[in-house]
Amino acid sequence: MADLTQTAAVAPRPGKRQRLVAAAVQLLHQQGVQRTTLADIAQVAEVPPGNVYYYFKTKDEVVAAAIDAHLQQIRGALADIDARFDSPRSRLKALVDLFTADSETVTQHGCPIGTLCSELDKRPAHEAFPVADLMHLPIAWAETQFRALGRADAHDLALQLMAAYEGSALLSNTLRDPTILTTAARRLTHWLTTF
Amino acid sequence: MADLTQTAAVAPRPGKRQRLVAAAVQLLHQQGVQRTTLADIAQVAEVPPGNVYYYFKTKDEVVAAAIDAHLQQIRGALADIDARFDSPRSRLKALVDLFTADSETVTQHGCPIGTLCSELDKRPAHEAFPVADLMHLPIAWAETQFRALGRADAHDLALQLMAAYEGSALLSNTLRDPTILTTAARRLTHWLTTF
Amino acid sequence: MADLTQTAAVAPRPGKRQRLVAAAVQLLHQQGVQRTTLADIAQVAEVPPGNVYYYFKTKDEVVAAAIDAHLQQIRGALADIDARFDSPRSRLKALVDLFTADSETVTQHGCPIGTLCSELDKRPAHEAFPVADLMHLPIAWAETQFRALGRADAHDLALQLMAAYEGSALLSNTLRDPTILTTAARRLTHWLTTF
Amino acid sequence: MADLTQTAAVAPRPGKRQRLVAAAVQLLHQQGVQRTTLADIAQVAEVPPGNVYYYFKTKDEVVAAAIDAHLQQIRGALADIDARFDSPRSRLKALVDLFTADSETVTQHGCPIGTLCSELDKRPAHEAFPVADLMHLPIAWAETQFRALGRADAHDLALQLMAAYEGSALLSNTLRDPTILTTAARRLTHWLTTF
DNA sequence: TATGAATGAGCGTTCATTCAT
DNA sequence: CATGAATGAACGCTCATTCAT
After folding, report:
1. Which of B11, B164, D127, D187 could form a disulfide with D123 if both were Cys (CB 3.0 to 4.6 A apart)?
2. What is the CA angle A9-A10-A16, rounded to 5?
């Protein structure tokens, strides 16, 4: 049978840009935006330092690419939940389950999205990044689920859900206590079951 | 008669150190730690740049002083509540009221304490700051109040309260919507009334 | 029957090198040598960046080729004058006419040859380019004409003529005033008529 | 008698900025703007590299300062001529004498002002420098002298004078022949005597 | 022959920190 | 005590040049 992965053979770039974005996502989470140098990113991605600029014109473009990667990841995760669960309630519970999937990492470095938004919002307006979407996406999705459950206050409930997660993630991180996050998740799950 | 303001004449310009700390608190909140230079702080404090090092040996000491100032402010605010209110329930409500006292500022720059913890937790362990106290203090205080109300799950409730605030503050900031914070505060107040 | 266009099929895209040189001549004039990158030249020539090095080993070789193109152009122009005019006097006037043929371009970017010589003479001796010929060629030609007119000071007159042009071109460019160049040309023409 | 140079004693900066500007003027002349690095300038000025930025915010500011130094030097030289000579004719001759005062340097590196204008005019409009004044100043001054001599075409004569100098300087530099400049100066002097 | 990708040396710039007075 | 000046390490970025295919 013929090789179906023909492009892979010719591909001159074995995911180098992809590796750079992955490294950026990781380091931005672990060290923050300001403390992460392009040399750091290049090193983790195993790419020569100067080569970063073949793929990205500026550091800000790398950050933007990392934000975009987060967006894609969120979209994918929500689509996956949609595909795997039918009822709005089970979908919301699945989201809460995602919250605790990486509780150890979140405890060490905070919520990847929350800390990114927090840091980037410190920038002056003319250097701002479109991070609001990172929050808006899961909120809008949760709102849809609550609305499907007949809740008129769907928007508020969605905000409440995300705020509970982000707040717990921050406390877990600051106090270095993963149980804060898991306890909060358990409470949220119970809430979703009973209301 | 002798000069009664003798110290004023020789002593360092009154409140110079104090002004530096106040400027640091303000700028760390608005611009973040990494983006704020000592020159920025000196300028806002109206202190000559080189003079900062008379009061602080390193930038980290300035940050530590700002953290300490936050600690004092929190202690003061909680002591003030203790003095002004008798019942645990009214005290907790007073705390929630504090949450929204600066909702506009929080919407613009996030919770001063939350964003500080978030950013400083990105540091490697050997450069860490004792920011956990900033969170621990109000949590322990709230736990005391919940316990006084006879709640066995006082610790969890305190965490839940603070997480709700920090999460709402983050969402308000990221989505630039102060109503997220005020709505959350209203819900918390109602919760404290009815439970 | 054999393919009569054999070379066209295999040979490098026709005029690729030529396009590169033309682009170099243009950009070196407009932006100067140092400010013009090989990527700029490749882009204007519509040649892939990496491909430049198939035709030229270094950037300096591209510059050398541009200088050579100027040399050819000058030789061609002078030969053309020789062919079209008989008397030395009319030939010299024809040269002066050339001076103002592109007065707008000269006003915007200076004399292509003069500015090239000016910039390249800033180089250390071991990186020098043979730009003197660019000046020497028209001077020697003018000298021949003046000599044919019986002038013993032919060399000086030739230098005077070229200096008047180059100086006017520089002033036109710096002061953004094309009339400086055209006025100078008119005076030179009158001088050639009357002396 | 009291020390009249009291400020000199306290002066914390022994002409460091001045040395930097002088080094910039020298190197910009010898190597051109683009080829001169701030490290070069710092080294010639015997100033630590990083310290340049205490006096100038950007490299462009250093260039601007060098341009300004040229302006001052020109103003000073013209004022000096005005002070030393009475008649317009002798003043113009004095200017021509200045042209050849540094004929060796001009032969090696071109006219400091002419080459600066030539190189900086290659910049895009939004990065332009105010170099026109460098040319305008001596032209306006010469025009004044010619007008004082009763010449209606004073402006043209002034342009002609400066163009003759700048053109000769360029040719001297390109052909590495100082006699081109001195011969031109002699001719100009003669012209000023006889017309 | 042709080309997208890769590479590293070097430059401008920032800023925490130190020093001389 | 106070301060303008000084310092150097490090970062973002450019670009001529090379390489693998």
Report:
1. D127
2. 90
At which residue do the structure tokens 């929630």 appear? Answer: B96
The two tokens of residue B87 are 């019942």
* Contact predicate D131/C174, CB 8 Å: yes
pLDDT digits (tens, 9 = 90+) for A102-121: 999 999 999 999 999 999 99
The Cα–Cα gap between B69 and B62 comes to: 10
Give the integer Cα–Cα distance in Å for B37 and B66: 14
Cβ of C49 < 7 Å from strand F?
yes
pLDDT tens digits, B110-125: 999 999 999 999 999 9
**Chain centroid offset of residue D136 CA:** 12
**What ranges in chain C are assigned the alpha helix state H?**
6-10, 16-31, 38-44, 52-55, 59-84, 88-99, 103-109, 112-120, 132-148, 154-175, 178-194
Please identify residues in chain C, positions 57-76, with a C-beta within 7 angstroms of any atom of strand F.
Answer: 57-60
**Which residue shows structure tokens 């900025």?**
D17
DSSP string across D112-159: HHHHHHHHHTTS-GGG----HHHHHHHHHHHHHHHHHTT-TTHHHHHH
pLDDT in tens, C25-43: 999 999 999 999 999 999 9
What pLDDT score does B14 carry? 56
B54 CA → F1 C1’, Å? 9
Q: Which of D71, D42, D75 is nearest to D59 (CA)?
A: D42
- Cβ distance B118 to A115 less than 8 Å, yes or no, reads yes
